[in-house]
């Protein structure tokens, strides 16, 4: 009996924390496709199956877009309501946030649009008045208590139910998309807990955003919905195409920027991005943005809180401050990455890491205590950015727009006269300077804690404050909001090193097509400056800190080493563990598996010749032998294992042989021992290999795995080679 006439369940799958074999997965999918195409010519039913198979990818994208859009809408609405809950409550209905509460009130005046009888602050409810020191202390206390409660719930839920739900998730998603398997990272528990705790973390007033985690949430949706379709459930490479599209959906709903989302997936997170995935990402991002627009979470028909429209032109001279903002963004990005990685390394290596709940509570308490007195840090970061992006019109009641009223005889709609800054503008500038220092320092310790935390919004806030500060009173700026927008882009670019996608996200966000050049100038300057100060973006730095096996495609390999310098076994090591094609018994193979921890074994003609036949995965070998012992009569420890095409005649009374040619890879990738390492690294990157065998004159010499390459690269950069071992 040939065991593999019928497929053995489990063969061809992967264990946790292993890398997938892209070449094998793609060829599996091509075989499946060929089979469907051949059958479709035979009957109408088969033709229908073939059509539904072709359509399933688009249907899956539709479902991912709908699900992610709906979740994002829910997160936006809940986070706004809970953020306002820290300051007071609506008597009309508990479920109204501050703005919605005052919408239908007739007693709201234009100057004090935030005050309406239906909205009561906690001091008014408890003490009965909102004035005086006692009321202020009461409001302060309630603000801090709510913040602590929200953050405590967030960190407790993450710790108890889904440890993978913390952080932003983008470094891990980059690693998963490059072919690594982290089971449960995109599972239903992670999705549920991440969605709930994201709302709690954002509402607690911590210096974090929801944009990065929304990419993780969208990828969880993609992964869960993949299980509805056999084509994606059984093929890891196909599933990663869906996850690439889901990452685009995440950014699409986070910023209301569908095209920016597709470009973000292409530029920042994806490893393998064929044209078909580009179209599907585009479709999924469109569906998600449409879903979010129909939910209308902010009640202003916009997909984000800080949508603005600028129409005044910019002047060529203004490019100088824009470039200076770019330099500031690059310096801040490089400083932030260094400081944050140093802090996260401290967390990993000292006792600090043993107390995640305490750490979150302490950071929340410090944030809330320092944030409340300053109105710019008290409001949610999205509202702060919205206020900074906002341009001053005659009807604005913001402190930043408190310019002295000049008596004007004839006001034309587009020509506002120059007005001197009022006292509130100077106060606002002081408060913003303090807010800038506060945000810069607190974000360093917040990012990487055990709660869902994104980095886009805090980075943009730092840049927007810096940009608005440029346009200080007295400076003859054209559009203060434009400087805030350029500063936000520069800082975000400095931290993440995004370029094209960032510019597109920013102009989709603001509808300012005429400001593409300023944005491009600032983003590019920011990237150059940040790259000069440190090569890695924040996500690559976190991937390296966590030791994920990720081969960065942007990094050049410039060393003149050869395959023989990297391959194992080294000269001092024991010889390579191999299996012969027809000379080993079940017992010998099982003891080889028990004594070693390798994830696969080369198959050779004989120990003497060392001529290569193929390669067999450890997991497939274990499953096939177990399956044979259960289902094939007479298989015992003494049974011979054959990887040959034909089994030679067996001596009488010998136990039946085991034929395992079906699980062997007959075309493993091989290089000669004198192949330059830069070529080997390129082969690994472009084909997504797990391992590559090294030969000399046709004889097998050794093996190079992805981890060997990462260790070698670390060694060449004078880093600890063991730092890449994923813990």
Commentary on this structure:
Keywords: Antiport, ATP-binding, CBS domain, Chloride, Endosome, Ion transport, Membrane, Nucleotide-binding, Repeat, Transmembrane, Transmembrane helix, Transport. It is found in: Endosome membrane; Membrane. This is Chloride channel protein. One of its GO terms (cellular component) is early endosome. The protein is α/β, with parallel strands linked by helices and 727 residues long. Helix content is 55%, strand content 6%. The protein has helices at residues 22-39, 44-85, 98-103, 122-126, 133-161, 170-177, 188-203, 211-226, 230-233, 236-255, 258-269, 275-295, 319-349, 356-371, 375-378, 381-389, 423-446, 456-470, 480-496, 500-510, 516-533, 538-546, 563-566, 586-595, 618-631, 677-687, 706-716; strands at residues 88-90, 119-121, 579-580, 584-585, 600-604, 612-617, 640-642, 658-659, 664-665, 670-672, 691-696, 699-705. The strands form four sheets. Strands 3-5-6-9 form a four-stranded mixed sheet. It has a three-stranded mixed sheet with strand order 4-7-8. Helix 26 links the parallel strand 10 (670-672) and strand 11. Helix 11 packs antiparallel against helix 20 and helix 19 packs antiparallel against helix 20 (500-510). The longest helix has 42 residues, at 44-85. 45% of the residues are buried. The model is unreliable at 407-415 (pLDDT under 50).
What is this entry, summarized?
With 727 residues, this protein is an alpha/beta fold.
């Amino acid at each position: 009996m040939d065991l593999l006439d019928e497929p053995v369940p489990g063969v061809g799958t992967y264990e946790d924390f292993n890398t997938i074999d892209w070449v094998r997965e793609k060829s599996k999918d091509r075989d499946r496709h060929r089979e469907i195409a051949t059958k479709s010519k035979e009957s109408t039913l088969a033709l229908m199956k073939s059509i539904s198979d072709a359509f399933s990818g688009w249907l899956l994208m539709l479902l991912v877009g709908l699900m992610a859009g709906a979740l994002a809408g829910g997160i936006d609405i809940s986070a706004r309501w809970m953020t306002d809950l820290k300051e007071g409550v609506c008597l009309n209905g508990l479920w109204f946030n501050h703005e919605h509460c005052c919408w239908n009130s007739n007693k709201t005046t234009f100057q004090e649009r935030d005050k309406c009888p239906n909205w009561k602050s906690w001091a008014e409810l408890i003490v009965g008045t909102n004035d005086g020191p006692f009321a202020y202390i009461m409001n302060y206390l309630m603000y801090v208590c709510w913040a602590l409660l929200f953050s405590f719930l967030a960190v407790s839920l993450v710790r108890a139910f889904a440890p993978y739900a913390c952080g932003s998730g983008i470094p891990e998603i980059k690693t998963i998309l490059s072919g690594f398997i982290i089971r449960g990272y995109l599972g239903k528990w992670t999705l549920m807990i991440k969605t709930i705790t994201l709302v709690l973390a954002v509402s607690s007033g911590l210096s974090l955003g929801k944009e990065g985690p929304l990419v993780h949430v969208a990828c969880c949706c993609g992964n869960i919905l993949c299980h509805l379709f056999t084509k994606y459930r059984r093929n890891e490479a196909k599933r990663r195409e869906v996850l690439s599209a889901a990452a685009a959906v995440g950014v699409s709903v986070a910023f209301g920027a569908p095209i920016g989302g597709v470009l973000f997936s292409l530029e920042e997170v994806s490893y393998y991005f064929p044209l078909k995935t580009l179209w599907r990402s585009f479709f999924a991002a469109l569906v998600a943005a449409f879903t979010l627009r129909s939910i209308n979470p902010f009640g202003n028909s916009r997909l984000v809180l800080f949508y603005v429209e600028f129409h005044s032109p910019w002047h060529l001279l203004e490019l100088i401050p824009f470039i200076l903002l770019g330099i500031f963004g690059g310096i801040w990005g490089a400083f932030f990455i260094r400081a944050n990685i140093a802090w996260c390394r401290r967390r990993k290596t000292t006792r600090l890491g043993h107390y995640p709940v305490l750490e979150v509570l302490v950071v929340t308490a410090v944030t809330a205590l320092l944030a409340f007195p300053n109105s710019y840090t008290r409001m949610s970061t999205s509202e702060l950015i919205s206020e900074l992006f906002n341009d001053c019109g005659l009807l604005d009641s913001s402190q930043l727009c408190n310019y002295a009223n000049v008596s004007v005889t004839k006001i034309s709609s587009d020509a506002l006269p120059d007005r001197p800054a009022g006292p509130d503008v100077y106060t606002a500038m002081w408060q913003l300077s303090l807010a800038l220092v506060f945000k810069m320092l607190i974000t360093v310790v917040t990012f990487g804690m055990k709660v869902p935390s994104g980095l886009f919004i805090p980075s943009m806030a730092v840049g927007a404050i810096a940009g608005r500060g440029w346009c200080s009173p007295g400076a003859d700026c054209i559009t203060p909001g434009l400087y805030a927008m350029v500063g936000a882009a520069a800082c975000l670019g400095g931290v993440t090193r995004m370029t094209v996608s960032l510019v597109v996200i920013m102009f989709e966000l603001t509808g300012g097509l005429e400001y593409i050049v300023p944005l491009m100038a600032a983003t590019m300057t920011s990237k150059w400056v940040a790259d000069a100060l440190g090569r890695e973006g924040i996500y690559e730095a976190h991937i390296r800190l966590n030791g994920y096996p990720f081969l960065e495609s942007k990094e050049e390999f410039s060393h003149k080493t050869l395959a023989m310098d990297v391959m194992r076994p080294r000269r001092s090591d024991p010889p390579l563990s191999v299996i012969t094609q027809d000379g080993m018994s079940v017992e010998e193979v099982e003891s080889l598996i028990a004594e070693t921890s390798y994830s696969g074994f080369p198959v050779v003609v004989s120990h003497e010749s060392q001529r290569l036949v193929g390669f067999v995965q450890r997991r497939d070998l274990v499953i096939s032998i177990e399956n044979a012992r259960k289902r094939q009569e007479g298989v015992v420890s003494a049974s011979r294992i054959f990887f040959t095409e034909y089994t030679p005649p067996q001596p009488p009374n010998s136990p039946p042989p085991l034929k395992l040619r079906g699980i062997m890879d007959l075309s493993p990738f091989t290089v000669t021992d004198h192949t330059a390492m830069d070529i080997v690294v390129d082969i690994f990157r472009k084909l997504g290999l797990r391992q590559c065998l090294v030969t000399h004159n046709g004889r097998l010499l050794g093996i190079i795995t992805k981890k060997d390459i990462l260790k070698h690269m670390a060694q060449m950069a004078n880093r600890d080679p063991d730092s890449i071992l994923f813990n």
